[in-house]
Automatic annotation (TrEMBL), chain A:
Protein name listed in UniProt: Xanthine dehydrogenase YagS FAD-binding subunit
PROSITE patterns from the UniProt entry: FAD_PCMH
Keyword Oxidoreductase in annotation: yes
Domain FAD-binding PCMH-type: 1-214
Lineage, highest ranks first: Bacteria, Bacillati, Actinomycetota, Actinomycetes, Pseudonocardiales
Keyword Oxidoreductase: yes
Originating species: Pseudonocardia oroxyli
MF terms (GO), sorted A to Z: FAD binding; oxidoreductase activity
From TrEMBL, chain B:
InterPro entries: 2Fe-2S-bd, 2Fe-2S-bd_dom_sf, 2Fe-2S_ferredoxin-like_sf, 2Fe-2S_ferredoxin-type, 2Fe2S_fd_BS, Aldehyde_Oxdr_Iron-Sulfur, Beta-grasp_dom_sf
Keyword annotations: 2Fe-2S, Iron, Iron-sulfur, Metal-binding, Oxidoreductase
Gene3D superfamilies named among the record's database cross-references: 3.10.20.30, [2Fe-2S]-binding domain
Known pathway: Alkaloid degradation; nicotine degradation
SUPFAM superfamilies (UniProt xref): 2Fe-2S ferredoxin-like, CO dehydrogenase ISP C-domain like
Name of protein: Xanthine dehydrogenase YagT iron-sulfur-binding subunit
Residues annotated as domain 2Fe-2S ferredoxin-type: 1-76
MF-aspect GO terms: 2 iron, 2 sulfur cluster binding; metal ion binding; oxidoreductase activity, acting on the aldehyde or oxo group of donors
Automatic annotation (TrEMBL), chain C:
PANTHER family, A to Z: ALDEHYDE OXIDASE 1-RELATED (PTHR11908:SF132), XANTHINE DEHYDROGENASE (PTHR11908)
Pfam families associated with the record: Ald_Xan_dh_C, MoCoBD_1, MoCoBD_2
Coiled-coil blocks: none
Molecular functions (GO terms): iron ion binding; oxidoreductase activity
Biological source species: Pseudonocardia oroxyli
Protein name: Xanthine dehydrogenase YagR molybdenum-binding subunit
InterPro entries (alphabetical): Ald_Oxase/Xan_DH_a/b, Ald_Oxase/Xan_DH_a/b_sf, Ald_Oxase/xanthine_DH-like, AldOxase/xan_DH_MoCoBD1, AldOxase/xan_DH_MoCoBD2, AldOxase/xan_DH_Mopterin-bd_sf
SUPFAM superfamilies xref list: CO dehydrogenase molybdoprotein N-domain-like, Molybdenum cofactor-binding domain
Domain Aldehyde oxidase/xanthine dehydrogenase a/b hammerhead: 12-120
Keywords: Molybdenum, Oxidoreductase
Length: 319, 154, 722
């Protein structure tokens, strides 16, 4: 960890004009500073800022302050099941008590090469190369990859939010702007170091989940090598609206397989209007991994993704 | 920088580098060595302490950012008697080498206080290489029934 | 005595492990490791490190701390760091930075610049199979290749060819790290030319001896302390890098030095269990009686060969009755981290292969796998005359099968979306003991002390010392204080090989009569309470005709502070009369998700014949932990070494060990037959046998659930995606 200056402003203006790296729960930043992956000269502790609160606004949209902790959001009664579940399947209870949801959306990839400064990494050190493409890539992405980077996006929450068309409200001294979360994250392309659309001087203020009454029937399935405290090999967020045995509407997104949270619009389209049964789910899921580019050790993900979609649909349809 | 920590009911003043984690402040500056450094990366739970009554990982917490009271395993006993969770861990043999135990106990105290439904999931943020897991669950359940009978008496 | 004696200390945070000590003036050391697997360090630029705030010293191969290579009869040579510029594995210690604070040392270490002359690294066990070398002789002194053939049989191949039913399969097990929760560490303090070292290890006397040799000081000038050890499992037998560098730097700087490996460094700079490849060929007659057994083993080892995982000698050599047996053990030297023994070395990975192959044989025969094992149970290792001293493996299987509901295994195949399978396996681990000395002291306050230098790394040895002392002196265990983890105590050897209970028990059985004799001499000697009279000792009292006194009263009357005696024991004549082993039967139930194919252990039972069980609760806990180690080997852990030699998953987020949610019911049962042919207390040790066989039982259950035979552990879900 390189020496740094730490300040703790109490007003948003002070924080936004500081030019410093924001520290909320610290579960990403402190970790990566110890590993020398991140070396900010100035850090601003934003925990005293007024970016809190979980509430449903008059339009029925759910608004969550960026500094709310994962555990508080997961436990809130007005949060959709898919969000609670994604949070409760993340990390551990201690980390969920620490990590803010703004920080959760901003967390960095868990790629072992990104985390090891002795190794090249285009995301950390542009142009240095990507050892994962020929290396230990069992955990890596098959969708949205490029020749520069194949690292997965690590957030479970982001997968649930992308499925629900969530937006984030960004604050800055220039005023605010609203961005769909799905558009906020960037594919790596040939600039994997640019992970998102947050501009200098901006902070995530709140997360807005549009009203979707039938998302009361939703869930999050996370497949991994151990039962808890691990990142996903593959995960699926699903909300399902079944009427008279047929799929009236559906939202699906996947994690653990893409360089960004991966919305499965083609599967959604294949399901809409069809029967809500196992055979239809299985048929629709066949397109889930379309466009996948498997590497030497992660080809199984192209088979696992459709299976995880079916499992999630079955679990949510059984209620 | 100068900071103030409230640890186990005592106010402690420290002059530290901002790089110092809560774990290293407790262990190396304040002599509070119950919390252990098993990984220093938030991947094992041996450093679990309570801040403001909630379990957190002291290894990923910068000491200078802590504003609320800190409680460690050393601060659980009351009137010289072990906390019911500590007693239950001893009686159920929920430990072997003991290195992870301080963190396990702090998570278990929260599991009992929060009346969690899925104890095994809740306790999964605390690795135990000796693998005392089934006994740890038994200890949480024993402490919970101790608490319930105490609550019933009140 | 209901609970382990140190439980109150461990649950309150009061137990002091090595790193919990911070003497005044302590400074902090931080190890720097290599980022290549093979080559030579041509230069190290440490100018920026020396200039960094708080830095007191930087040690490198170009500016080393003088250390000599220690040699011990039990451990062989122990590697000492920074003595040359050769790099033979990725993550090898190459530097040591000492600064006033931990943060200053850690962050200055980032500034070390190392220049290497790289050489090609051999890192693939598979690539090395073709030109593998013969391993050294086994622990029993047997050659790596051996055969036992029936009269008239020309070769094992002939015996296999003549068998009615045959299995021929190759299995693989992963490199593993002990991954004790306490990283290897040390606090070193010099005073008046004497070193005190606080460091969690498996034997304080071994540690002190290694340090004395390395530092070239009189053994009496080194005191190693390890009253509490945060797990070991074989990984803390040799003295570690932190101890050597910490002690040498503390001497150089005249300040106490505290040093710990990071978790990542533990994966390379300590040692690992080697990876193995094993080919099993088994022949049987139509009734399932073995006619031939061939077990060919390959183990990875270090570039200069060191420890080799003895998979065939540890299992097939001894487990089953067969007229024809062929064993080979080869090794493949690689540029990988040091190899060493780890919980059930040989038996754990060896049993995965043998017991999977036995299951394949049962399938081929259409026979109940339990029945197959009962039919081939041995009364002595093949080709040896010495019969097992006390073997009740059959009872373990029959009791276990009943308790587990083995007969129902074909009824319940699916539970909602989960496919259910049952598996079983044999477990065996040799009963050993080491030379051991224990001092027993009787005190005027009617308490006793039982003291030995040995370690309790979570095994319960501290509790066992009190129990054995109480039993031998016929007083309540609450009055027997145990002292251990201090190299100045009588040598108790290493906590390893599942030996400690049998070793200390045997020594106490010798020492207790001696200390009672000494007490009697005090009581009846000049000025004694019963001077010149006939006396007897019972229940903590000395009885003379019509009179008695506690031993404390006897000592007080004589003005004595204590009487003491040292009991020693070592393996002896019994080794010429019998073969000795513990035995067990493992049963597992697994669930495999119908869609996503992850495997979860849902229920397991182990029934063990381990001689006398000394402390029921600690014994069950240790067995349970070992069985969960088996689950971990089967489904979770494996250190993946990249072609470059870099470990791909050397941290606790990616080197997976089970979490609480992975482990539901673990049932443990014992058949209780004290083995007094092995040692006077009848206990055979159970730290290691518990892990043996579990990985095979799980793989067998996965086959039962899915019809897919996975011959490589850890099993991952992609193995089961059709």
């Amino acid at each position: 960890m390189r020496a740094f200056e730490l300040t703790a402003p109490t007003t948003l203006d002070e924080a936004l004009t500081s030019g410093a790296t924001a520290l909320a729960g610290g579960t990403t930043l402190v970790d990566l500073m110890k590993l020398d992956v991140l070396t900010p000269p100035r850090v601003v502790d934003i925990n005293a800022l007024p970016l809190r609160g979980i509430e449903v606004d008059p339009a029925g949209d759910l608004r969550i302050g960026a500094l709310e902790r994962m555990s508080a959001v997961a436990a809130h009664p007005q949060v959709y099941p898919v969000i609670s579940r994604a949070l409760l399947l993340s990390a551990s209870q201690q980390l969920r008590n620490m990590a803010s949801i703004g920080g959760n959306l901003m967390q960095r990839t868990r790629c072992g090469y990104f985390r090891d400064v002795a190794m090249p990494c285009n995301r950390r050190d542009p142009g240095s190369g990507c050892p994962a493409i020929e290396g230990a890539n069992r955990m890596h992405a098959v969708l949205g990859t490029s020749d520069a980077c194949v690292a997965t996006h690590a957030s479970d929450l982001a997968v649930a939010l992308v499925a629900l068309d969530a937006r984030i409200e960004l604050v800055s001294t220039q005023g605010g702007r609203s961005v769909a979360l799905a558009d906020f994250y960037r594919l790596p392309g040939d600039t994997p170091e640019r992970e998102h659309d947050l501009r200098p001087g901006e902070l995530i203020g709140e997360i807005v989940v549009p009203r979707l009454d039938w998302a009361a029937r939703s869930t999050y399935v996370k497949v991994r090598d151990r039962q808890s405290y691990e990142f996903a090999l593959c995960s699926v967020a699903v909300a399902l609206d079944v009427r008279d045995g047929r799929v009236a509407d559906v939202r699906i997104a996947a994690g653990g397989v893409g360089t960004v949270p991966w919305r499965l619009t083609a599967v959604e389209a294949a399901l809409r209007g069809g029967p809500a049964d196992e055979a239809a789910f299985e048929a629709a899921a066949q397109v889930a991994a379309d466009g996948a580019r498997p590497l030497s050790h992660n080809g199984y993900k192209t088979a696992l993704l459709p299976r995880t979609v079916v499992r999630a649909l079955l679990e949510v349809s059984r209620g | 920088m100068d900071i103030t920590l409230e640890v186990n009911g005592e106010t402690r003043h420290l002059s530290i580098d901002p790089r110092v984690t809560l774990l290293d402040a407790l262990r190396e500056r304040l002599g509070i060595t119950g919390p252990k450094k098993g990984c220093d990366r938030g991947q094992c739970g041996a450093c679990t302490v309570h801040v403001d009554g909630r379990p957190v990982l002291a290894c990923l917490t910068l000491a200078a950012t802590v504003r609320e009271p800190v409680r460690t395993v050393e601060g659980l006993a009351a009137d010289g008697r072990p906390h019911p969770v500590q007693q239950a861990f001893a009686e159920q043999d929920a430990l072997q080498c003991g290195f992870c135990t301080s963190g396990q106990v702090m998570s278990a105290v929260a599991a009992v206080e929060q009346e969690v439904a899925d104890v095994r999931e809740f306790m999964s943020g605390n690795l135990c290489r000796c693998a005392a897991y089934p006994n740890i669950v038994a200890a949480v359940e024993q402490a919970r029934s101790t608490k319930e009978s105490a609550d019933a008496r009140v | 005595m209901t609970m382990r004696t140190d439980a109150p200390l461990k649950t309150s945070g009061a137990a002091r492990y090595g790193l919990d000590v911070t003497p005044p003036g302590t400074v902090y050391g931080y190890v720097v490791t290599s980022t290549i697997a093979h080559g030579e360090i041509t230069a190290m630029d440490v100018a920026a490190v020396r200039a960094a705030p708080g830095v007191l010293a930087v040690y490198t191969p170009f500016d080393p701390l003088p250390l000599r290579t220690p040699m011990s009869p039990l451990l062989g040579e122990t590697w000492v760091p920074l003595q040359d510029t050769e790099v033979t594995y990725y993550g090898q210690p190459v530097g040591f930075v000492v600064a006033e604070t931990f943060e200053q040392a850690r962050d200055a270490a980032l500034l070390v610049e190392v220049t290497y002359d790289r050489r090609p690294a051999r890192t693939s066990l598979h690539a090395g199979l073709a030109d593998a070398l013969d391993a050294p002789p086994s622990l029993h002194g047997e050659p790596p290749t051996l055969q036992v053939l029936a009269d008239g049989v020309e070769s094992i191949e002939d015996a296999l060819a003549a068998s009615a039913v045959r299995v021929d399969a190759t299995y693989e097990t992963a490199t593993q790290n002990h991954a004790a929760m306490e990283p290897h560490s040390a606090v070193a303090v010099w005073e008046d030319g004497r070193l005190t070292l606080y460091s969690g290890t498996q034997g304080s006397d071994l540690q002190a001896a290694q340090l004395a040799q390395a530092l070239d000081v009189e053994p009496a000038r080194v005191r190693a302390l390890n009253p509490f050890v945060g797990g070991a499992f074989g990984g803390k037998g040799h003295a570690g890098v932190s101890a050597f560098l910490g002690a040498a730097a503390a001497r150089d700087l005249g300040r106490p030095v505290k040093a710990a490996l990071t978790r990542e460094q533990v994966f390379t700079a300590t040692a690992t269990r080697p990876a193995t490849v094993q080919r099993l060929r088994i022949g049987a007659d139509a009734d399932g009686r073995l006619t031939a057994l061939a077990h060919d083993s390959w183990s990875s080892t270090t570039a200069t060969p060191s420890f080799v995982e003895p998979t065939s000698h540890g299992t097939s050599r001894e487990w089953y009755t067969t007229p024809n047996l062929a064993i080979t053990q080869k090794m493949v030297p690689l540029h990988v981290p040091p190899t060493t023994f780890m919980r059930a070395p040989g038996e754990a990975p060896g049993s995965f292969a043998l017991e999977s192959a036995m299951d394949e044989l049962a399938v081929a025969l259409g026979m109940d796998p339990v029945e197959l094992r009962l039919r081939n149970s041995s009364i002595a290792p093949p080709g040896r005359d010495l019969q097992w001293s006390s073997k009740h493996l059959d009872e373990c299987f029959t009791l276990g099968a009943q308790r587990f509901g083995w007969a129902q295994r074909h009824r319940r195949r699916v539970d909602r979306d989960w496919l259910v399978g049952y598996g079983t396996a044999t477990a065996m681990f040799p009963a050993l003991r080491f030379p051991c000395a224990v001092r027993i002291t009787l005190r005027p306050d009617d308490t006793a002390e039982v003291a030995t230098s040995g370690a309790d790394p979570g095994t319960g040895l501290r509790t066992v010392l009190s129990l054995f002392g109480a039993e031998a002196l016929a007083i309540p265990p609450e009055r027997v204080e145990a002292a251990l983890g201090d190299s100045t105590l009588p040598p108790g050897g290493m906590s390893g090989g599942s030996t400690a209970t049998a070793s200390v028990g045997s020594a106490i059985a010798v020492g207790a009569p001696a200390v009672i004799d000494a007490l009697v001499a005090v009581a009846t000697g000049p000025g004694g309470l019963f001077e010149g009279r006939e006396v007897a000792y019972a229940d903590g009292r000395v009885f003379a005709e019509g009179d008695s006194a506690t031993f404390g009263e006897v000592l007080r009357a004589a003005g004595r502070d204590e009487v003491t005696a040292i009991g020693t024991s070592a393996p002896g004549e019994e080794m010429t009369k019998h073969s000795f082993s513990s035995f067990g039967a493992q049963f597992c139930e697994v669930r495999v998700h119908r869609w996503t194919r992850e495997v979860r252990m849902s229920r397991m039972l182990g029934v063990f014949d381990a001689g006398r069980i000394v402390h029921e609760q600690a014994a069950r806990s240790q067995i349970m932990g070992g069985m969960i180690w088996g689950v971990s080997a089967a489904l979770h852990e494996g250190l993946e070494i990249e072609e470059s030699g870099r470990p791909a998953n050397g941290d606790f987020a990616s080197y997976l060990i089970p979490v609480n949610a992975d482990i539901p019911t673990v049932d443990v049962e014992f058949v209780r037959y004290p083995d007094t042919l092995h040692n006077p207390v009848g206990a055979r040790g159970l730290g290691e046998i518990s892990v043996v066989g579990v990985a095979a039982a799980i793989a067998n259950a996965v086959y039962d659930a899915t019809g897919i035979r996975v011959r490589r552990i850890p099993i991952v879900l992609e193995d089961l995606l059709e």
